[in-house]
Amino acid sequence: MPRMMLDGNGAASEALRLARVQVISAYPITPQSPIAEQLANYVAEGRLHAKYIRVESEHSALSCAIGAQLTGVRAATATSSVGLALMHEVLGVAAGCRVPIIMPVVNRALVSPWSLWCDHQDSMAERDSGWLQFFAEDAQAVLDLTLAAYRIGEDERVQLPAMICLDGFFLSHRTDAVSVPEESDVDDFLPRYQPHNLVLDPDHPIFINDLTPSSDFMEMRYQQQQAFEAARSVVSEVFEDFGRRFGRSYSAVEAYACEDAEAVLITLGSMSGTAKCAVDELRAKGARVGVLKIISFRPFPAAEIRKCLKKVPRVGVIDRSANLGAETGPVCAEVLAACKESGTTQIHGFVAGLGGRDVPVESIANAFYALLSQEELESGARWLDVRENALFIREVQS
Amino acid sequence: MLEIKTRAKGFVAHGVSACAGCGLELAIRVVVDVLGRNTVIVIPPGCAALFSGFGSETALRIPGLQGNLENTAAYAAGIKAGFEMQGRSDINVLGFAGDGATVDIGLQSLSGAFERGDRILYVCYDNEAYMNTGIQGSGSTPHQAWTTTTPAGKTARRKDMLQIVAAHGIPYAATASIGYVEDLRKKVGKAKASGGPAYIHIHSPCPPGWGFEPEKSVEIARAAVRTRSWPLYEIVDRVKGRITVPVGKPQPVAEYLKLQGRFAGITPEELELVQKEVEEEYALLLKRLDSQ
Ligand SMILES: Cc1ncc(C[n+]2csc(CCOP(=O)(O)OP(=O)(O)O)c2C)c(N)n1
Ligand SMILES: [Mg+2]
Predict the structure, then answer these.
(1) Does A64 sit within 8 Å of B78, measured CB to CB?
(2) How far is CA B71 from the centre of its chain?
(3) Residue A12 confidence (pLDDT) above 80
(4) Domain A253-392 classified CATH 3.40.50.920?
(5) Pocket of ligand 1 (CB under 6 A)
(6) Does the structure's ipTM exceed the value 0.95?
(7) Percent of chain B that is helix, strand, coil (3-state, to 5)
(8) Residue nearest ligand 1's atom 10 by CA
(9) Which terminus of chain A is less hemmed in, N or C, by CB atoms within 10 Å?
C-alpha cells in the first residue's frame, strides 16, 4: 500500500476521492478550506469525475449535497465551527430523510470570542442531530474512518449520515505518512452508492419530507433511534472487514493500558495520542494508568465503556468543550450515564484544550495525579490549565 | 366520503386544502402542467407546502422535496447536479417558493445558484406577505399595505425582485400573473426551453390575506396589471426585454386598491403617493426594457 505524506485535510480529501463522490458542494472556512480546495483540484485535474458546486454558504453546501444525494449519487461537503452551526437546520434534514452523507468536520471552537483553533464544541452542539460521529486520532484514522463511515452510513440497516471529526490544525494541518489504499481495493470495499429508501426519480414519483402529523412523527424519530441501535453492530462488522482488507483495525472505543489501571482517562481525537504518551511516562514511574479513546461518539458505545471501566476505581473524562451551565462537559455526562449502575467507579470531569489551547503531557499527567491522589475532587468539571487571572482578563474599566 | 365530481387533470390533485380562491393553486397547476411529468419540484414551507402533502398523502404526481425556507434554490441546484452526473440533464428541476422564501430568507441561496448558472427553474408565487404564518409583512409586501406586522400600513416600498434577478444575467426572467394564464403558460414554456437558470415571479392574490372575497382573485390580479401596479414583462438572454401584456390606458391605482381590505386605511394623500410611485416605477421599467 503506497504511503503518502498527507495532513488530516489531505487524508479527508483523498478518502472522498476514493469514495468517488459525484457532487461536491463546499464553502471555505479555516481550518477546513484545504479540503474545499483539494476537491476542486481533483475535479479540475480530472482525478475525480464530479460536479463541483461553489456554493455561497454552508447552509447551501449541505442543502445541495442532500438534493444531489437524493437523486442517487454520493455527494460530499465538509466544514468547521460556525459553518457547522450554520448547517444546523439542514443537518436534521439529512438525518431525518436518511441521506447518508459522509462529512469531514474539522473541529474548531464556536464564537464568541472568535477562535480559529481546535475544540469540540462545534461537533458536540450537533450530537443530537441524528448524525453518526466518529473522532479521528491521526491523519490515517481520518482516511480510514471516512471510508468505513461510507459502508456504515449507507448500510441498509443504518442509512444515517456521518461526521468524521478531526481536530483543527492538530490534525487538519499536521502532515503524517498515510497509507492510501488502491482505488480498486476501495471499490471492492465500497461498492457504488445504492439508496435504500427515498429517491427523487420522475419514473417513480414520491414526495419527500412533507408535514407529518403527531400520529407518525414519533415513529419516524423512533426509526432513526433504531438505526443508531443497528449501527452498533454494523460499526464493528465494518471495522472488522476494514481491518481484514487494509490491515488497520478500529473499534468504537480503544483501550490503552486499561486492564490493571487504577485511573483511566477518557479522550477523543488528537489528544488521545498525548494521553497515551502520558500513560507511558507515568507507567514507567510505576503509576497504573490507562486511556480509553472514544472513536464512535454516535452511536455512543455505552456498553463497551462500561465493560472497560468495570474494574477501574477512578475515571476522568476530558471534554474539549465547555460545560456551560452543566455539571460536566457532554462526553463526561454520557460516560456518567453509561456507568450509572456501577457504584465502585468514581467518574470526574475535566475540561481542557479550548480554543486551540494545547493539551500537553503535563496537563494530562496532572489529571491522572488528581485522580490517583484520592483527593476529594469537586463535583463539577475541573478546568485544566486555566490562568489564575481568568476572571480579570479583558475587563473593561468603567 | 366526498364525492369527486370533476377529477383534476394534470399533475396536481383535486381537493387540495388551499383556501377558496387561492391564487397560488392556479399558479402551481399551470406551471406543473406546462413543465410536464419529467419534473422534480422543491417546495419550501409556506402555503405551497399544502401541495407537498400531509403525512402519507401528497397532492402532486411528480416527485418532490419539501425543503427549508431559505434553501429552495440550493436543494434544486443539488438535485440538478445529481441528475446531470447520471446523464439525466433532461429532467426539469423546479423551485416553487413564496415571496418570503424568495425575496427575503431565500435570497442568498437563489442568488448563489443564479450566479453559478445552475440550470434550475425557479418560480416565486407572490402573495405579498408571509401568509402561512398568518399574514406578516415581507420584503414583497407593497407600500401602505396592512399586514399583522405592518398594522398601520407598510411604510417601506417593496423590493423589485425582477431587477435583482436580472442583475444576475440569467437566460430568462419574467413577471407573470394568475390573471393572465396564457401569458403565464408561454413564459413557463420559455423558461423551460431556456434550460435555466430561469425565473418567473407570479403575482398571486390571496383572499384572506388581502381581504377580498374568493371569487375575486382573478379580477384583482387583472386589476393589478391594468393599473400598472404589476407590469407583465420578460427579459430574455439578459438583453431582450419587453412588456408582454401592454396596458395602453391604465386605470387609476385606486381601482385596484379599493378591492382589498388591506388598503382600507389608506388616506387620500397616501393613495396619491402610491399612484405616483406606480407611474414612476413603470416609466423606469420601460426605460430599462428599452435600453436592454
Ligand atoms: C427558518 C424558518 N423561519 C421561519 C419559518 C416559519 N415559516 C413557515 S412558512 C413561513 C411564511 C413563508 O412566507 P412565503 O414564502 O411568502 O409563503 P406563503 O406562506 O406566503 O405562501 C414562515 C415564516 C420557517 N419554516 N423556517
Ligand atoms: Mg407569501
Answers:
(1) yes
(2) 17
(3) yes
(4) yes
(5) B 45-48, 69, 97-101, 127, 129-133, 138
(6) yes
(7) 40, 15, 45
(8) B46
(9) C
